[in-house]
């Protein structure tokens, strides 16, 4: 057993060595320009006193806000830019400055001093805090993570650990929250009822509610340190969220009309991490009860559960936007929902229930609620912040195009996608044949999840940085495809506001559905993509951008080589057969690294072409 552990350690060392090139200091793609505008950290003001709904240094914090929060064992609050804490259940006299200073600090040289903390949120064992400069700091209350307890950490993400900060991606947000799933929750139950242990390190994420109240951006420690990922929003057109709470990957939203939605969702459950978790769209039943770590590597059924509308609160005189969700035990259903408000007999407190229950109860509590109970006006944006990014939405007329086989367009065939969700699937692609009746069309239903990328991104979804997904065909109204294409993650999807590409291979042929926002296509898909990228982004393509594109292409190739070497080691030592997690890594590492390498190489070559044909001889010599 000891020898096997050493071999496993050797494999992990080789695997992480393959990412070593990412740990060196480098400038993210176009970040030099971004740091002067869109990518710069957004300074934050102190939260209003209205956020202190539990009172000043209260005996107990009942409702979480961005100035007052709690985890499994400790409560926290902000006062004059500093963090105070006490153990849950102790008296109000026990409040004291966290770690003596109330501010993030560390003896490490590169740890910058913090003058003021303005936003905090806790869940289970972790506390997240943003400084007045908009930078994130984390601390953990127990030794159940890879971080030392009761110490501050100023980095985030992987493979390059850099500080996460609020920028234009989340500027003007309505709120944010943190979710942590570890031993207390133990397992996730997929839509088929199969239980999957969270493993020794568990899962955590940070989710932002966008300023329009209809968009969710998130960041995960397993991804680069940015807010380039998003979750789908409830499909209710009338629903506009005014607040967010989160616990153990379960998001809780409330609208101005008092309607509420919940969903258990994170980077793993949406199917975006096939290098660490096996996924399937085929229903099956597992015998594991979730306590065994081995259940972590049984197939996670997709898609995960959709948004659930919670029953309205009855017997309330008025509700507020102040909500809280709390993990109370193991599995998906052990969550408690709380909504601060006033009962029918004019008592102040909060309504609460278990997430699966239909009826709400009321508990009186010394809360201080503002007169405007549902005010959710986002922070006013300064002139420097006015470029906050809007959520991506498909063109009003959708996308339309054709099917290509080995670079040649298939005649008498066209296709359309009406509503494409850039966050998550599904989407429906309608294929029509010119020699068939109009109602004799073929409907293809795809689910898709975003492909992991190792680089910082700010504006994915543009033609300059399209989103890329693994797609799975889950239903077809005809025998258009053979059974080999009905497997998980068989299709590669690339999408932006200008076009959608769905590529797949069958036998010796390569197919591609290629659809554009205007329905126009005068060249092959590859040429059309390059032209659109150039036309829409020519002002961003310069020698600095090319330098970063070369660096990214080089690192993507290095990652692929390292993963390939690690895979050879695992096969030579039979680790991919004897250690489940290594087998999963080996299965998808090639595909993920190949997709990234090809994409970043293509970007490099496109920029070189543009600069060679658009700049002066002096500029050309620099190439």
Task: Outline the structure in words.
The protein starts with a helix and ends with a helix. The N terminus is likely disordered. Helix 1 packs antiparallel against helix 4 and helix 4 runs antiparallel to helix 6. It is built from 7 helices and 33 strands. The strands form 8 sheets. Strands 25-27-28-29-30-31-32-33 form an 8-stranded antiparallel barrel. A 4-stranded antiparallel beta sheet has the order 1-2-3-4, with no helix packed on it. A 4-stranded antiparallel beta sheet has the order 5-6-7-8, with no helix packed on it. The longest helix is centred in the last third of the chain and has 35 residues. Strand 3 and strand 4 form a beta hairpin. It is globular and about 75 Å long. The protein is an alpha+beta fold and 623 residues long.
Task: Give a short summary of the structure.
The protein has helices spanning 2-17, 31-34, 525-537, 543-572, 575-578, 580-614, 617-621, and strands at residues 68-70, 74-79, 82-87, 96-97, 117-123, 126-131, 136-140, 152-153, 175-181, 187-189, 195-197, 203-209, 216-219, 229-231, 241-247, 250-255, 260-264, 279-280, 300-301, 308-310, 316-327, 335-343, 348-354, 361-364, 399-405, 408-409, 413-417, 427-433, 442-450, 467-476, 491-495, 499-506, 509-516.
Q: Quick check: average pLDDT? A: 85
- Biggest sheet record: 8 strands, antiparallel, barrel
The general outline is: globular
- Radius of gyration (Å): 25 Å
**Beta strands, count:** 33
Query: Helix content range of the residues, please?
Result: 10-25%
Distance between the termini: 54 Å
Class inferred from helices and paired strands: alpha+beta
- Which residue ranges are poorly predicted, with pLDDT under 50 across at least 5 consecutive positions? 1-21, 23-36, 616-620
**Beta-strand percentage?**
25-35%
Order of strands side by side in the largest beta sheet?
25-27-28-29-30-31-32-33
Helical segment tally?
A: 7
